[in-house]
Amino acid sequence: QRSWKATARMEDEQSGEGVFGRELEKTIKEVVPNLDPLDAPEFDPVAYINEIFPDERSLTHAKLESDDVSKKRRPHHRLDVRLASVKREMISISEDISRSVRQHSCQRMQTKQAVDDAKTSIQDLFDKIRGIKEKAEKSEKMVQEICRDIKSLDCAKTHLTTTIAALMKLHMLVQAVDMLVKMSEQKQYKEVANRLGAVDMLFLDFQSYSHIPKIQQLKKTMVKERAKLQTQIIAEFQSYGTNPSMGLDDMVVMLREGCLVMQALGVKAKDELLIWFSRSKLAPYTNIFGPGKPAAELRQCDRRYAWLRRTLREYDEQFGGIFPKSWGVPAVLSRDFCYLTKDHLRTVLKSQVQTMDINALVAALQKTIQFEQELQVRFGNTNDDVKDSSAVTKGSGMDANSIKTRYKQEMEEKKAGGKEKYLSQMAAAKAQRPKMDFRKIISSVFYGYLGEYVKLERENIAKLLSQVEKEEKWSGGNADEDSGADGGDGEERRSYSGSEKILIYIKKSLQRCSRLTTGAVLAEIAKEYRQGLSDYRALITSKLPRGSKTDSVQQLSRSDNERCCLVANTAEDCKDIIPGIERAIKNVLDAKYTEEVDFSHEQSQFAALVNLAVETVVKGFIFRLGKILSMMTRMPWDKWESVGDQSEYVNQINSMFSQYVPPVSKMLSDAYHLFFCNQLAKACIPLYEEHIFKCKRVNALGAQQLALDSHAIKSIFLAIPRLRGGENLPARRTRAFNRIVDREMGRVVAIVKTLASPTDCLIATCRTLMPRGDTRFSETLTKVLYLKGLKKQQQEALVETYNAGVEAKDHVALDKKSDGHFKRIFNFRS
């Protein structure tokens, strides 16, 4: 049974028939619950039979057994009883099936009858729809015939209307052309100008009929009439003022109306009239100022521009009421004048290349640029043209033309009823003018010949430097070198006045040159400025005491110190002003040349000169200090008997600093005053150390005296920044100087204290007191041993001991052994 059951399940799973998914079976069971085990999807016939007949006895006897799961008692039937029950169910099912078959057979007959009736009804419906469709087609055909007739009528109406309109416009065109010809002959220019526009509009309607002979004839007539009108009006202008039969006022009215006709004829006709007018007005100018004429020289440029001003005034009197304002005839006349003048000047400049007068060239260029600015203000159409009267002459000087322009503008402001109304009127008028830019129209012809102007600037700077060298008071004053008493007139100077002259000249030259050109020539002139500054730096450098660039500086007097301070302050002023000069040049220079302007080298040169001047002063102090310290080396330090007050050489050092430092500190700026103090400390303290080692021998008491003197000298150096007088410098500014003094004097004090220590603990003392990282330790130790007077063998032994190193326990023993000894030795009075 088990083998048969497994085989059946495998066949069912392989065939897949009658097997539903688990989810589907679960859903069916929830929707249609069935308690019959035969309907279960997992029905197993073998298990079902085994459940009903568990043993052979149950085939013949019925009994009740308890179910452990459901706790109910279920009966087990006999086989014959069970078979009888199954047969009854089969019979019942067969009867139900037969009943259902008979019932469905009756219903099929009824359904067939209903389907036949439905087909008959559908056929009747189709017949009715076909009849309706035939009627609709007939109606549509009738509507199309009616619409075709209506469309034919509409087309006929449109053609008729177009024909009538074309005939009316043709009649109007013929009449307008005839009337235009008649009015032209009668010189009724105002009506002609009005009808020209109307005729042009009518011709636009006949563009598609240009092949018709009548239209072609009218066009030819109109072209001839236009040419005739243009020639006739130009002839009227030519006869202006020469026809005595017509009054001047009538002539002005006729010419004003003729301008309206020229404007109606188109831009080309208007331009031809303006070209003729400009040539006729500029013909006398060419006869007077053309190349080869006496008035064509560069010195006569102001006469050229005066001629145009006079011509513009004559234009305002004669033609101001004729030409429309929107034409901008004065601007056109000025533009043509500028181009003609440019050609004249180009020829003149070419002919004078070898004999060029640079002063005349510059003067002509200045007058030309001023004239262009005048035209730009009057006729230019740029955003910066409309200015108030207070700004008209800005940057152009107080010349006569500028004053006249400003006065004229102020009068116009009063007539307009105020500055705001005047500016608004000017802006509206300029908006109607043709766009013109008069800047560099004429002046550009000079740029190729401004190389001589660069040479002129170079010569002017050289002359100025020569003048400064002669007139400058280079000496610092008439001071007594020993007493320090000032002489002279007591005038206090901080820097040389020549630097101010040089810088002022550069500023004025830049203003002058920027008004002439802002291109390559100005870039070349900027190079001359750089060279001039370099030459001035070399000039004031030469005024430093001899040997300033080497170490051979001798003793400097107060006058020499003052001269060095003047050089330092002058160089500092130039160094600070040079960046402003560079920015000013770049602001006016064309963008493509700004990279060529670089004053950083000159600025660094002046900064180096400041350092050189300060270092020269320091070298003078070193020389004086060396003389005093030489006296110290000659003192009998090996025979010193007692320690008293500070030595005489210390007092002399203090006196020397007190006498010569204050004048230098007062003349220098705050920044370089501290730089001077730093350099002085860095140079003088090592010199003091060097002279200590120049002493022959030093005993213990002499070493103690040196220690006392070094303490006093340190105090003298720390007080140097305060010798300037006035307000004391804040502590944060002297912090760096104090560190320098502490570092340098710390080494000197350590050397002196080591010199005073006993020989047996000298190396340990030296290692303890000397600053860490001192690379000169071995050399210093040798010098200290020499000063103490030790023999060469002892020196070599101690140096070898130092080189071999000292153990830590030796340092501890040294501290414990000589603690009281050091306290007794170094307990100095302050």
Characterise the protein shown here:
The structure is a single chain. The protein has 830 residues and is an all-alpha fold. Helix content is 70%, strand content 1%. It is built from 27 helices and two strands. The protein has a two-stranded antiparallel ribbon. Helix 9 runs antiparallel to helix 10 (329-351). Residues 1-6, 64-73, 382-400, 478-490 and 806-830 have low confidence and may be disordered.
Q: Round the Cα radius of gyration to an integer and report it.
A: 61 Å
Low-confidence stretches: 1-6, 64-73, 382-400, 478-490, 806-830
Task: Give the termini distance in whole angstroms.
Answer: 128 Å
Backbone structural class: mainly alpha
Largest sheet report: 2 strands, antiparallel
Q: Secondary structure elements and their pairing?
A:
Blueprint: H1 2-15, H2 22-31, H3 45-52, E1 63-66, E2 73-76, H4 79-185, H5 189-205, H6 213-238, H7 248-265, H8 267-289, H9 301-318, H10 329-351, H11 358-379, H12 400-416, H13 419-432, H14 451-471, H15 497-516, H16 520-541, H17 558-588, H18 600-633, H19 648-667, H20 670-693, H21 700-718, H22 735-756, H23 762-769, H24 777-787, H25 792-804, H26 808-817, H27 819-825
Antiparallel strand pairs: 1-2
Helix pairs in contact: 4-5, 4-6, 5-7, 6-7, 7-8, 8-10, 9-10, 12-13, 14-15, 14-16, 15-16, 15-17, 16-17, 16-18, 17-18, 17-19, 18-19, 18-20, 19-21, 20-22, 21-22, 22-23, 24-25
